[in-house]
Amino acid sequence: MADVEAARRALEATLGPDEVLSDPLGLRLYARDASMVEGSCALVAFPRTTEDIVSCVRIAAEHGLPIVPRGSGTGLAGGASPVAGALVVVTSKMTRILEVRPADRLAWVEPGVPNLDLATALRAHGFTFAPDPSSQQTSSIGGNVSTNAGGPHCLAYGVTSNHVIALDLVLADGSLVRLGSEGPESAGYDLRAVVVGSEGTLGIVASACVRLTPLQPAVRTTLFDFETVEDCAATVSDIIASGVVPAAVEMMDRGIVVAAEAFAHAGYPTDAAAILIVEVDGSPAAVEAQSRAVEAAARAHRTRAVRIARDEAERALIWKGRKSAFGAVAQIAPHYHLHDCVVPRTKLVEVLAGVYEIASRNELVVTNVFHAGDGNLHPLLSFDRRVPGTLERVLRASEEIVRLCVEAGGALSGEHGIGLEKRDFMPLVFSAEDLSAQACVRSAFDPAGRMNPQKVLPDGARCGDFAMARGDDAARVAADLPEGAWI
Amino acid sequence: MDLIHPSSRADVTDAVREANAARRRLLVVGGRRHVDKGNPCEVDAELWTTQLDALVSYEPAEMIAVVEAGMRIGALNRLLADGGQEWPSDAPDDATVGGVIASGASSVRRLKVGALRDTVLETELVTGGGRFVRSGARTVKNVTGYDLHRLVAGSLGTLAIVVQVALKVRPLPQMRRTLLFEGGLELAGSLLRAVPTAAGVLAMSERVELRLEGWREEVDELADEATAVAIPSDVREGGPFPSTKPWDAMPVVAEVAVPPSRLGEVVVGDAWGALAGVGIAWVGLENANGDLQHLRERARAAGGIAPVVRGPGGLGDEAIAAVEVHRRLKDAFDPNGVLAPGRAWIRT
After folding, report:
1. Domain A97-214, CATH number (from 3.30.465.10, 3.20.20.150, 3.40.50.2000, 3.30.420.40)
2. Tens digit of pLDDT for each residue in B279-337?
3. Chain A 226-265, residues with CB within 8 Å of chain B CB atoms
4. What is the model's pTM?
5. Whether domain A4-90 has CATH 3.30.43.10
6. Which of A141, A481, B10, B119 could be bridged to A485 by S-S, CB 3.0 to 4.6 A?
7. ipTM score here?
8. Which residue of A has its CA nearest to B192?
9. CB contact under 8 A, B143 and A416
């Protein structure tokens, strides 16, 4: 039985009264992340050190509270929306960059460091942190690790998992372990790789050792515009087929271009059916060679204009429009629901057509801004949830979009994660056996199920089912299952 | 030693279930190129994956190839070359894709192409308990549940048998050039600073091999920048990368992994090659006794490890983080301990 009052006293005694929230307003503030999923929590704590995190986990265990780790709260899948009665452990006060070691191409950082702050700090050393989610001004490294965050530039440089080489992780039992190492390989199974993208269900990141990526000597950002969405998408496939892997290939359709332009004044052509932002980098000669191939692909598909950023200011402006797109849609309607499914690159046109059809049939406004190079779609439904019946239509359209992407051979999420929002869609892509195996991974880290319960896996996915494969041990395993367990 | 030679995933599942019933211990074998890696383990049978060698799908515009685990590296390379692409493993032609992944083999071009485990997008597995499981997706980005496919990479066939994989592949570089320099680790460091985007900077006891890959003009440009940091008479053009592997002539080869700046503390003798900026060094030794122990002590002091990849010597006795998590994983995926018991880091 949870004893919230005792937990509060213990947390205040250990962390200090200013680092614990228990008043109704404070609890309400941390009852959701940036998704549409609202939860509720019992307590909120703000650790400042690794030891504080350990204390939070121990105190929660002692008093029977589940734990929900949280970074900056920009998650879009409800991964940090707490379940009832939880202690929310917020790492946003742990913002130190602990050390930068260019010779080892690594840096140790606390989990609350905002992504962009890290990238900026590394610039001085001639390096960057490659993952650059659109939320990068706010989203934290700990959160990036949790969701295996991507961003426009992971087309060429890979997702967060490729850029985190070690983690100091506080496990559900309060023990602190270092997974991975400062070297390229480490002893044991690659648990680091499993923790990245596990949405705070395997432990809390106390610090992360990130890989430094050398800054490229030259970079060129070009804006193309097209009269049809099909031409724009076909250009993407042709660029890749020509042997060029640009640093980023971002596509925006007319609806989002109009909204972003009104907000960012980036000079986007608002009469185009779709625009494509392509960034290539490397040595000056590499940039020239790639630019030629990219431009040829765009011209072959009737691009109307080729706008090359002349300087860093213009490049920043072009990116500003792209990265602020999700904020800009507030002009369309007060609420939005953002999707994040991945489809094979060659299916982009077909899936986009399907998305438009679904939106129109459900009488919703849909705009699209996405990582076209990765096939990572972000259909964005704009609506006003105060209008009766709207939310139901949004949810219905959302499910249809998810099913469409899965049928095209895609994945449920490219970079936002599963959280609570997509949990029940998991059986669309995984068998019961697959999900049981995943449940085994989770319970290997957290046998008591204290860490971010109810997230990621649907009800019914249990490791116990998997262990039944023991055959003659089956009866013993079954006897271990709690009463009423799903089998 | 019994041999099991499955030709379908159903055969694999049947074989593993039978092994569980009979408590028969299995060693999963691909091309035999990585069998030395791992701690010694006693098994009753070998399960060969080499008949599972089909191409499942390959679409160059997706930059993804789906193949069965027993496909040979040579066959994969030929297939991908037709699409103008490669899977940058550098393993010998007769190694298998599954073997390269399960052994966690490293590429000499890791500086540019990254760790091979990061190219594994989806895996189909038969667990030690005889369960068929799929993890991941055939897309380059995917955050959908727990990444079993990442866990299994490098686990030396002790959790599950990889039967099929989807690999992220990359375009073949338009041009490749190897430059040979007279010098050692110090010069390698200077070259790395001059051309941080090189494909590889391999230091050996008396020379450094620099691999440049990319667009034609780019490679020439980088070559100019690299040669500027050396004495011109000390630079020659090379061919394949690396042109020689002096460590390969030795009876025992350890693959050291340390933070890159510590490489100088671990290399010893003259039969070694160290990847600057990466932290991998292959060190050839006469035997797996005293020399190996000393190497491991130095690697440990530098914050790293030194498993043997050829010859006797195993992985070493390094402390494992989260031992209990390892035990529970092994117990869940291989409940009867039929998959190469003791071969991986945790000896259960």
Report:
1. 3.30.465.10
2. 999 999 999 999 999 999 999 999 999 999 999 999 998 889 999 999 999 999 999 99
3. 237, 240-241, 243-245
4. 0.95
5. yes
6. A481
7. 0.96
8. A103
9. yes
